[in-house]
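Q: What would this chain look like folded?
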Amino acid sequence: MPCAPTTASPIESKPTVPQVSLQTISFDLSINTVDKGQISAILQGEDILLEPKDLESVGISVAGIGKAQTIEGKTYLSLSSLAPAIIYQFDVNLLKLALTSSSDRLTEVNVRDLYSRNVLPADTVFTNDSSAYVNYAVNYNRVQNVDGFSAFSELGYSFGNSLVNTTISRDAKGSVSRGLSSITYDNRKSLDRWTIGDTFANLGELGGNVTLGGVTVSRQFSLDPYFVSTPQDSTVRGSISTPSTVEVYNNGVLIRREQLNPGQFELRNVERDSGANNTTVIIRDSFGREQTIKTPFYFTSAVLSPGVSDYFINFGLKRPSLNDGGNYDSPGLRGRYRWGITNALTAGVRLETDNKLISGGGEIAWKLPTIGEIGIGAALSESNGSGGWAGYGRYNYTQRNFSIGASVRFLSDNYVHSSLAAVDNRNLVDASIQASIKLSDTIGVSARYSKIESRNLGSGYAIGFDGGISLSSDANLTISASRSIQPGNQNNDSISANLSINLGRNNRAIVGVQQERSNPTVVVAQVEKSIEGSEGWGYRVGSRSDRFGTDINANLRYQNSIGSYQANYNRTQGSDIAGVNIAGGVIFIGGKIVPSRPLFTNSYSLVQVPGIGGVRVTVNSADVGRTNADGDLIVTNLQSYYANSIGINLNDVPFDRRIEPASKLIAPPVKAGAIVTFTPQKIQNIFGKVLIKSKQNIVIPKYGNLIIKIDNKVFASPLGEGGEFYLENIPVGKHPATVEYDDKECKFDFDMPKIDRPSIELPMINCVVNY
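A: My prediction, written as C-alpha cells:
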C-alpha cells in the first residue's frame, strides 16, 4: 500500500549544512527501512538530486514522475518533487538518506519457491557401485492331506545405471517358468529408460495391457524425484511497502512462513492436495497491519506442464502368457505419447499395430480453472478387414470435504487392441458415477452407481452406499449397503457393518455382521497386530460364523534383517488348509555376501564402519539396525534416485576414534546397491609447551598460535598463558612449524616421534630466534 507523505520537512533543519551551490556526497541509502548500500547524490540547497538510473538500480521506478534537470550533461531528479509517491529523510550528521516509497513504485520482485521437493541437495552422491541380489520365496501348503510346494526367485545384477534381472517360478504342479527378463539402462538427465527384453505396457483407457518383448524406450519421471512434471501454476502475487512476515495457509493448514522485503512478491508452487485448494496468504507488516489474499487453485496429475512429454514406445513381440515357457508372437510397434500444451491442456496419441491388427486414437486431459478436470478420448481399429471404434469421457472434481466423478466408455462389437480380440466378450457400455461428502470431522458418506451392457451376457447395474463414523480416536464404524444385478445373474442385495477398535501397540480388533439376500447372516471377528518397524512379530486370528458353522483363519508373521516368515492355518467347511512361507534375499556387494530381507522395487546399501560393531545406523533419521562385528550393515528400502540420508550414531563409536562426516546423502539407481563407508580415524592427542629462545632471554608466547603445515594441510593450536598447545593426529616426522606471537613469528621444525599411545606429552620445545 502507498505510504502517506510526511508533513515534516524532507531535510533536517538542524544542524545546518554549510551551503554551497552544488555538492556531491555519498550516503548510506535505505528504502522502506531496508539497507541498500551507498549511493552518490548532489545537495542543491535544501534539495537532493539523484540520477534516475541510480534509483532504478536500487529498485524504485520513477517513470512519469518528478522534476528533472541537467547538470554537466547528466539528468537528475529532485527528490522533493517525487512526493507523495516517494518521500525522503536525510540525516546530515550520519550521512544517511532514507526513502519511503509506495509499493507500486518498488520494482524488486521477491520470489519464493514453496515446493519443498524440487531442489536436490548439493552434496548428494549418485552412486554406481556394482552389486547383485537374489530374492527367493518358498511356499508349502497342505490341503486335505495333499502337499503342495511352490517357489519364486528373482535375480538381478546392477552396474552403473544398468540393471539385468529375471524371475523364475515353480508352481505346485512342478512346472517351472521364466517371468520377466530384461536389461535396462536409465538416462537420468533425459529421464529416459531403455529396455531390451520383457516389459509390461499399459497403453491407456482404450488400449491394451500387455507384456511385450523387444526394445522399449519410455519416459520415467521417477529417475528424478525432484523433477516437477505437472503444472506448478499455483502462484500468489502481491506487493508490500515495508518488511513483512508472510504466512501461507492451504486449506486452513499453515504450510510456510517467510520474511519478505518491500516490493512485489511471488509465492510460487504453493504445495497443495489433489483437487480443489483454497490458499490464504496473510501479510503482517512492520506496523502490525494485516493484508489477506485468498486464491483458489485446482490441482491434478492428469495434465503435464507445457513442453513436458511422457511416452512409451516398443518395437518387438507380444508375450501372451508368463506361464507358457516364454513364447512370443505378433511382432509390431506399440506406443503412447502425451505432451503438455498449456498449464490446463495435455494431448496424447496411441498406436498399436502387429500382423493381426491396427488400433490407435487420441485423447485430451483438460484441467478446468477451479471446477475439476475432464478427459476425452476416441479410437479406431481394424482387424481381418473389420473396423471398430471406441470412445470415453470422464469428469472428476475433488475438494477437501466433497468429491464427485463420472465416466463412460463405449466399445463397438469389433473394436480391438493388443489385449482385446474381436471374438472376446466386452462391455459395449461401461458407465459409472460416484460421490462422497464429509458431513463433519467424524462422519463421511459416499454413493456409487454403475451400469454395463455386455455384448454376450446382457445388461447389469450396481448401486451402493457407504458410511463411516469415527466414534473416538480409537474406534471407527463403517456401514455399507449395495444392490447389484450382474449380466446373466440374479439380484444380489447386501448390507454390512464393521467396528474397528485400536487396542494399542499396533493391535486392532474388528467385529462385523453381513446380510445377503437368500443367505444366512454372517458374523466376522478378527484380532490382528502389524509388525512395528522393520523387525518383529505380527499376527491375525479371525472367524466367520453363520448358521452352518464357523470357519477359522490364523496367520503368524515374523520379520528380521534376513527374511520374513509366515505360518497360515484355515479351517473352512470342515477342511483344513495349512501353509508356511519363507522369503528372503542374498546381496553381493563390495566383495561381501550378505543375507537380507527380500528386495522389491527400491534400492539398498552396504553401510560400513570398518572394525566397529554395534554402531546404530539411521536412514532419514530413523534407526534401521546396528553394524555387525565386522562393522557392516545392509540397509534396504532406499528410494531410488532420491537423496537418502544415511547416518551413524557417534555415541556408539569408541572415544579414541573420530568419524567425519557422520551422515551422507546417496542416490542409488533402481534396484542397485551403494557402498557407504564411514572411515574411523584414530585420535592421538598431543600436548606440550613451546617457548621462544632469543640471544637475550626466553619469552613465553602466551595467547599466540602454533601452526604446522604438512602437504598443504594445516594443523593449528592456540597457545595458553604458559605456551601450552594441543594438537591431534600429527604424522610422524619433522614438519615446518611457525609460532606467531606479539606480531612476531618464530620458525622451527616440529619433530613428531613414533609413539603408539592415544595421548602424548612432548618435551619442552624451544624455538630459537636470532635477536
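The radius of gyration is 37 Å.
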